[in-house]
Design a protein that fits this description.
The protein has one domain. The chain has 18 helices and 2 strands. Helix content is about 70%, strand content about 0%. Helix 7 runs antiparallel to helix 8, helix 8 packs across helix 9 and helix 10 runs antiparallel to helix 15. By secondary structure, the chain is mainly alpha-helical. A two-stranded antiparallel sheet has the order 1-2. The N terminus and C terminus are likely disordered.
């Protein structure tokens, strides 16, 4: 699908100036249209100085910065949450919240990239979008598939044809969903399959929404989110469909990504801006959000978690995202933009890919406590991830950056290394 679209120079133009004026007039008493950033801005000019100036900036201004604060730090938190859960298997470590955070960040960033491109150039190149996603995601993913296939073959663990086809076809999510989430070296790739399916579908949906008043776009996204909640609740509570399906399948997890998309559409909203300032009135407020998240995930029953719980968690993740993007200059959250944290955020994609093999290394080093095994597994995973990042990903990222410079693409975001 991507290769077909990549062979075509598909550009969808934004509405004409007259149509833009009509769209803005339709939203005259709301927050404006998606094109409002192309119009004169009455807010103070954005600062490109260090993060200490963030406290004086609105959320809308922060979302327009080339470097988006806290995002790489949040990616690091997300991937380490997943890793520690898999290494300890403790019910007190909510590993799937890390995946939900990845989903919300991806929906937010991808939509923000598309909005920027549309506002800057008046068009969205689908060919350019899919080419950038291909160069960013496929090399590391397929290198991991080859690596895992070879190691499993050497260990005598033969893949079934179904697993092989699911892995190379980016549909591990439905393979897991329909087979009870079997434990394999690629079973964690279900979330990557969900994101890839999102990348395939979302640009077309975005273009349909962008041609309409922004209030309509937001309403449609809210309807999609509610629709997914109802569908998932019906399957789990009404039809007795097992957790494996509702946990893995794209049609039951799209709401997490859509919530991130909705936040991106809300960045131009004055009402959102006022609300965003309220929730960071004190720098400890994100701690309250984290407590709510932990309570929702750890202490609620399965009937809640597999129905509305996924959505509640994603909404709280979105709140946390908005809070922390504004608070990295505060002493309590400055570590999110520390260079070490950002480094682990930058390699979060290969860390997620290889963390299972990191645990395998730790297990083969002998009987040790869970703490020792966890540290050894993290170290081994980091070595493997660095190998993937510097030997596989970076060469393709340079090609991607070269293409973006040639096209003068406005979508390059620092702190947005892996949507």
């Amino acid at each position: 699908m991507i290769s077909v679209l990549g062979a075509l120079e598909l550009q969808v133009a934004a509405p004409s100036t007259r149509t833009r004026a009509k769209l803005c007039s339709n939203c005259a008493h709301t927050e404006g249209s998606i094109y409002s950033r192309s119009m004169p801005d009455v807010t103070p000019p954005m600062s490109h100085s260090p993060s200490a100036t963030l406290s004086a900036m609105t959320f809308r201004q922060i979302a327009r910065e080339r470097h988006l604060p806290a995002l790489d730090g949040l990616r690091a938190v997300a991937v380490f949450t997943v890793m520690v859960y898999h290494y300890t298997e403790s019910r007190w470590v909510p590993g799937d919240l890390g995946v939900s955070l990845f989903f919300v960040i991806s929906g937010f960033l991808i939509t923000l990239l598309l909005i920027r491109e549309l506002d800057k150039t008046g068009a969205v190149s689908l060919r350019g979008f899919y080419l950038r996603r291909t160069l960013r995601i496929f090399p590391a993913y397929y290198a991991y598939i080859v690596f895992s296939l070879a190691v499993d073959w050497f260990r005598g663990h033969r893949w079934t044809l179904g697993l092989f086809l699911a892995a190379i076809g980016y549909v591990v999510n439905y393979y897991n969903a329909l087979n009870g989430h079997p434990v394999t070296s690629v079973s964690h790739a279900w979330s990557l399959a969900d994101e890839e399916q999102f990348y395939l579908l979302w640009p077309a949906i975005f273009l349909l929404l962008a041609a309409r008043p922004v209030r309509t776009a937001r309403t449609v996204l809210i309807a999609i989110i509610i629709g997914v909640v109802v569908w998932r609740s019906y399957l789990y509570l009404g039809r007795g469909v097992g957790p494996a399906y509702v946990y893995n399948a794209f049609d039951t997890r799209f709401d997490n990504l859509a919530i991130g998309c909705l936040v991106a559409f809300l960045t131009s909203s004055e009402r959102m801006g006022r609300w965003a300032r309220i929730i960071v009135a004190w720098q400890w407020l994100p701690l309250a959000t984290i407590v709510l998240l932990y309570t929702s995930r750890v202490f609620a029953p399965a009937s809640y978690h597999y129905s509305v719980g996924f959505t509640v968690d994603a909404v709280l993740m979105a709140v946390l995202l908005v809070q922390l993007m504004q608070l990295t200059s505060a002493s309590l959250w400055r570590w999110l933009d520390h260079r070490v944290t950002r480094f682990f955020g930058a390699i979060s994609y290969p860390l997620y890919l290889y963390h299972g093999w990191g645990m395998s290394v730790a297990t083969h080093l002998g009987n040790h406590s869970n703490v020792v095994k966890t540290f050894v597994a993290i170290a081994a995973s980091t070595v493997l991830a660095c190998g993937s990042y510097y030997l596989v990903e970076r060469p393709f990222l340079r090609i991607k950056q070269h293409l973006e410079r040639r096209r003068k693409n406005p979508s390059t975001l620092l702190g947005a290394t892996q949507p």
